[in-house]
TrEMBL record:
The keyword Hydrolase applies. The lineage of its organism: Bacteria, Pseudomonadati, Pseudomonadota, Alphaproteobacteria, Hyphomicrobiales. The keyword Hydrolase applies. Keywords: Hydrolase. Residues 403-614 form the Peptidase S9 prolyl oligopeptidase catalytic domain. Pfam families: Peptidase_S9. It comes from Rhizobium helianthi. This is S9 family peptidase.
């Protein structure tokens, strides 16, 4: 591929132009996130005059990724940490003056915005683990003064505590010693057992929030059914009313009326997202939007309190997110901004949904992107391929715009993302099939889809790479150690090399999640569990590594600590096995600073070009704004070998 034809990395992975639009409660103002001097900040404008847009914050540290108005529209809240360590602080900013207040100015504490209510417009419920790092206590915090009032001292060690709109704690969630989920009812100071949910049902069963009547509780549940449904649970009578379900796929998201919290629409996580209107009025709105935006994946991002104005987010596989203002009264749809308008100058590649079978008969749903120049469902001859493995593992890949797919396809590769067992959206049996199957049947699913791509004439069997972050990083380590003959190279990012040390070093506030993890992976407290964890850990199969590996990690990662990569790099060096290792001292579980993100992509691209033979955009200045430290094997980035 000619150098001039490549889509610049910075257009795919640099800061978005704008995203995350939020309507003020009265619908008169818009806020969103866009860069200020290269750092993502909050912007604001009158809804009717985007030309008057002004930055509201001017943080110069880590980017802001989330913001939302308080219920009375007097403030905008956001969260941020300092260096990727997930010790988030909760901030509010006055949209009139721009004054920013840190509501949780406590070092070394993870603060979580948990709840807000129209009944208490000047207060937020915030969870803090300052008393005990394992558990969050609940506080009602005054957004003007920052003064805290204790709502619930979490001595019961609940992983989750749900409140109603009167700020009353109503239920708690914990885990039993065998990995089941246990729910508790809370009435004033009284706590009593509510119900137990099996390990099989636990991941897909969650209370969400109360109706405005404080009696009906919206549930996402798979208890007594194969796929997750949305239901109303009457907390007084115990009666359950099904709102929406699907026989094959999980219900995914709900649209709630801003004031009453009635469910107005439900999305189904099929191969493509499907919205189902629950009320006839919203059903008509969704039909109108889909007619105006054919072939787009759409979602409703924000709504005014009167439910007359909506923010609509829309994207396709070949177009990044576009934000619209939808006026329900007039039926008009007005474009606000696009996340990456510069990509309009380039030809992007379509994405194809794939359904195939695993070797033991499970349906595997995957997404394939081929270079834009390929006509039809397969190339004229097999291509080098990158297998991109999603994290979690309890997450999933979706259809739609993905910068990583477009980047790699543009460089001349086939790109395959597989929803392996354990991925969510496909029913509880599909999740249950992953129990203790790490580096076993979960990895078999990946290999089965690689073999599918080879049989279909899509992938060149001699040039297949594996790449992913978090669990995807673990899968990349597994690919290099358990199936070294399948992949010609691997690129693990913030990955896991030792399942035992992963489970022994989880963040303290994951304590309520620990038993579920032990049930899923193996119990590090037992001899049998330790043996299983060792058997499935790449660190114990370093001798099997025979192909090039490029490893990335954030030094402040609290989920998969940097020791996971340090240890396998040291083991490889002790055995004389070549490895390239890059660490970011100011990042955690992923790379959020744009300079760091661009440098990571540039180095991975050079690595793929060397071993897969695709296109490569020379580094230029793409490493200059990065904090990265190349701790091993930096010689592979010699552009004399990789430039094209």
């Amino acid at each position: 591929m000619a150098e001039t034809s490549l889509i610049p990395r910075k257009l795919l992975f640099g800061n978005p132009h704008a995203f995350g639009a939020q309507l003020s409660p009265d619908g008169q103002w818009l806020s969103w996130i866009a860069p200020v001097d290269g750092v993502l900040n909050i912007w604001i404008a009158p809804t009717h005059d985007m030309g008057a847009a002004q930055p509201l914050t001017r943080t110069t540290g880590r980017p802001i990724w989330w913001q939302e108005w308080t219920v009375d529209g007097r403030f905008i809240m956001f969260v941020n940490d300092e260096n990727g360590d997930e010790n988030d602080h909760v901030f509010i900013v006055d949209p009139k003056s721009g004054h920013v207040r840190d509501l949780t100015p406590i070092k070394g504490v993870n603060a979580q915005v948990l709840h807000w209510s129209r009944k208490f417009p000047n207060r937020l419920v915030i969870g803090l683990n300052d008393r005990d790092a394992r558990w969050h206590d609940l506080y009602s915090v005054d957004v003007e003064t920052g003064e805290r009032e204790l709502l619930w001292l979490n001595t019961q060690e609940f992983a989750t505590i749900g409140l109603d709109w009167d700020f009353r704690p109503r239920y708690g969630r914990s885990t039993t010693d065998d990995g089941r989920t246990r729910f508790w009812q809370i009435e004033n100071e009284t706590v009593r057992h509510w119900m137990d949910v099996s390990h099989l049902d636990g991941w897909l069963t969650w209370p969400i929030l109360f109706h405005a009547d404080n009696r009906r509780l919206l549930m996402k549940t798979c208890v007594g059914r194969e796929t997750a449904a949305f239901t109303w649970l009457d907390t007084e009578s115990g009666e359950e009313t099904v709102i929406a379900e699907h026989p094959r796929f999980d219900a995914h998201r709900v649209m709630l009326h801003p004031a009453t919290h009635d469910v107005e629409a439900v999305s189904i996580a099929a191969t493509r997202m499907e919205w189902v209107g629950v009320t006839s009025a919203v059903e008509e709105d969704l039909a109108l939007l889909q007619a105006k935006l054919p072939d787009f994946e759409i979602s409703i991002g924000s709504r005014s309190d009167d439910n007359r104005r909506w923010i609509v987010e829309a994207h396709t596989a070949q177009q990044a997110a576009t934000s619209f203002l939808y006026d329900r009264d007039s039926g008009t749809l007005t474009e606000l901004f696009r996340a990456r308008p510069e990509l309009d100058a380039y030809r992007l590649a379509p994405m194809r949904s794939i359904e195939a079978r695993s070797r033991d008969g499970l349906d595997l749903f995957s997404y394939l992107t081929l270079p834009a120049s390929v006509q039809g469902e397969r190339p004229a001859k097999p291509l080098p391929m990158v297998l991109l493995v999603h994290g979690g593992p309890w997450g999933r890949d979706f259809y739609g715009y993905r910068g990583d797919h477009q980047w790699l396809a543009d460089r001349g590769y086939a790109v395959l993302s597989v929803n392996y067992r354990g991925s969510t959206g496909f029913g509880k049996s599909f999740v249950a099939a992953s129990e203790k199957q790490h580096a076993a049947r979960m990895h078999d699913d990946l290999i089965d889809m690689v073999n599918w791509a080879i049989r279909e004439g899509i992938a060149d069997p001699a040039k297949i790479a594996i790449h992913g972050g978090s669990y995807g990083g673990y899968a990349s380590f597994v690919g290099a150690t358990f199936t070294p003959d399948v992949f010609c190279c691997s690129v693990p990012v913030v990955g896991i090399s030792n399942l035992q040390t992963l489970l022994e070093s989880m963040p303290p506030y994951w304590a309520g999640f620990a038993e579920f993890m032990y049930r899923s992976y193996g119990d590090p407290r037992t001899e049998e569990g330790r043996a299983l964890l060792a058997e499935r850990s790449p660190i114990h199969k370093v001798d099997q590594i025979a192909k090039p590996m490029l490893i990335f990690h954030g030094a402040n990662d609290v989920r998969c600590k940097v020791a996971e990569s340090d240890s396998i790099v040291a083991a490889m060096q002790a055995k004389g096995i070549p490895v390239t290792y890059v660490v970011y001292p100011d990042e955690g579980h992923g790379f959020h600073k744009p300079g760091n993100r661009i440098a990571y992509i540039a180095m991975a691209e050079a690595f793929f070009a060397r071993h897969l033979g695709g296109g490569f955009e020379p580094f230029g200045d793409d490493l200059d704004q990065s904090s990265h430290e190349i701790r091993a094997g930096g010689e592979i980035f010699d552009l004399a070998d990789t430039g094209r």
